[in-house]
Amino acid sequence: MALIEIQDVHKVYKRGAEEVVVLDGLGLSIDEGDFVALMGPSGSGKTTLLNLIGGIDQPTSGSVSVAGTDIAKLNGGRLAKWRSRNIGYIFQLYNLIPVLNALQNVELPLLLVKMKPKERRERAAHALGIVGLGDRLKHFPRQLSGGQEQRVAIARALVSDPTVLLADEPTGDLDRKSGEEILTLLERLNKEFKKTIVMVTHDPHAAERAHRQLHLDKGVLSN
Questions:
Q1: Quick one: pLDDT at residue 195?
Q2: DSSP sequence for the chain
Q3: Does the global pTM surpass 0.70?
Q4: Distance CA 53, CA 57 (A)
Q5: Rg (alpha carbons) of the chain, rounded to whole number
Q6: What is the pLDDT of residue 146?
Q7: Which residues in the chain show pLDDT less than 70?
Q8: 60: closest CA among 97, 25, 33, 89?
Q9: Is residue 105 one of the residues assigned to a domain?
Q10: How far, in Å, CA of 128 to CA of 136, rounded?
Q11: pLDDT (0 to 100) of residue 199
């Protein structure tokens, strides 16, 4: 059964009197436990599609269903609550808060749910252990390498045990060695922890790590 079901989705932006079609009747089905790489030229709609799956953006028309919920029909507080439970986001830029240490950065998503501080710290420490940074809990971003910062960001995406991990160019800001380590970590999260991953990348080498590669061009998908 599909975990993510996208049916006849159109996304149109208006620039003055002009309409820009970003996604054009797109359909996509992703099973639980899948690892999908989304590729395509700049401006092809890859990040828009990722944002629709994550409930950050809404389709102009069509349906986006994740784990049986049509998120195109959610709004406001209900959408924010759904997103905090179901979506873990990994960005190209790590978006860590410089004045917080690794543990505190990873704890952030858990501040949105009712949880005792001790449990919050334990879960954040566990997530950092999974990404290989169990010995860096008290380190601040400036004390970490780029690859380690991205690991902290991945731990932050994992800490609420989301249904889906969305990764937007997760290795785009890293050197080759650090990038390989991050891709190996994503593979492990997929295989060992059964995380469903949708990754946007322009790098064919990174895309090879996924189970499936999908190409998006002018708002239309192809294999």
A1: 96
A2: -EEEEEEEEEEEEEETTEEEEEEEEEEEEEETT-EEEEE--TTSSHHHHHHHHTTSS--SEEEEEETTEEGGG--HHHHHHHHHHHEEEE-SS----TTS-HHHHHHGGGGGS---HHHHHHHHHHHHHHTT-TT-TT--GGGS-HHHHHHHHHHHHHTT--SEEEEESTTTTS-HHHHHHHHHHHHHHHHTS--EEEEE-S-HHHHTTSSEEEEEETTEEE-
A3: yes
A4: 8
A5: 17
A6: 93
A7: none
A8: 25
A9: yes
A10: 8
A11: 97
Q: Are 71 and 107 in contact, with CB atoms under 8 Å apart?
A: no
| Residues shown for the chain | 223
Beta-sheet strand order (sheet of 18-31): 18-31, 2-15, 61-66, 69-70
Structural contact between residues 195 and 130, judged by C-beta atoms closer than 8 angstroms: no
CB-side exposure of 82: number of CA atoms within 13 Å? Answer: 19
Residue written as token pair 């924010």: 80
The pLDDT assigned to 151 comes to 95
Q: What is the CATH number of the domain that holds 164?
A: 3.40.50.300
Task: For residue 202, report the phi and psi dihedrals to the nearest 5 degrees.
Answer: -100, 0
Cβ neighbours around 55 below 10 Å, total = 22
Here the tokens at position 87 are: 């979506």
| Residue 211 in tokens | 């189970």
CB distance 23 to 7 below 8 Å: no
Structural domains in the chain (count):
1
Positive or negative: CA dihedral 23, 27, 30, 36: negative
Structural domain of residue 212, as residue ranges?
32-58+85-222
197: number of Cβ within 10 Å:
24
Give domain status of residue 19, yes or no: no
